[in-house]
Amino acid sequence: MEIKITFENMEHSPVIEQQAKEKILKIRELIQDSEWRTPRFAELWLKANKQHNHHLAKLHLKTPDFDLNAHEECPDMYLAIDKVIDKMINLVRKEKSIIKDKRNKQDSERKNFTDDKYNL
């Protein structure tokens, strides 16, 4: 999985980048635990606001099955990263359950179609 981290209005920080990569890899593990394919890329934008004491973190996750976006704004950059990762984990879990429900529905429809009453 390709991970891209962009810093806006702030200098590149290896510590922040390392923490963000570790958190994003947790999302990757969550997705790989299932029968899904590996995510293609994750893109994280970190923006420091010069006028206000708020930092913005946006995360975009692209997989073969879905695209997800999350964003969070906090006074602390580390807190913003943690919150956006938590939001993304919740979105991934929700999307996984939706896809699983769709697959189960399709399987049950196939099973109902192949019941004895439909056999000729």
Layout: helices, strands, pairs:
Elements: E1 2-8, H1 14-32, E2 41-48, E3 55-62, E4 67-74, H2 77-113
Parallel strand pairs: 1-2
Antiparallel strand pairs: 2-3, 3-4
Helix pairs in contact: 1-2
Protein architecture, described:
It contains 2 helices and 4 strands. It has 120 residues and is of the alpha+beta class. The protein has a 4-stranded mixed sheet with strand order 1-2-3-4, covered by helices on one side. α1 links the parallel β1 and β2. α1 packs parallel to α2.
Quick description:
By secondary structure, the chain is α+β, with helices and mostly antiparallel strands. The chain has one domain (2-92): Ribosome hibernation promotion factor-like (Double Stranded RNA Binding Domain), CATH 3.30.160. Helices cover 47% and strands 26% of the residues.
Return the CATH class.
Answer: Alpha Beta
Largest sheet: 4 strands, mixed
Rg for CA atoms: 19 Å
* Poorly predicted runs of 5 or more residues: none
CATH superfamily: Ribosome hibernation promotion factor-like
At CATH level 3, the topology is: Double Stranded RNA Binding Domain
> What is the N-to-C succession of helices and strands?
EHEEEH
- State the distance separating the first and last CA atoms: 49 Å
Strand segment count: 4
| Structural domain tally | 1
Q: Looking across the biggest beta sheet, what order are the strands in? A: 1-2-3-4
Keywords:
26% strand, Double Stranded RNA Binding Domain, 4-stranded mixed beta sheet, alpha+beta
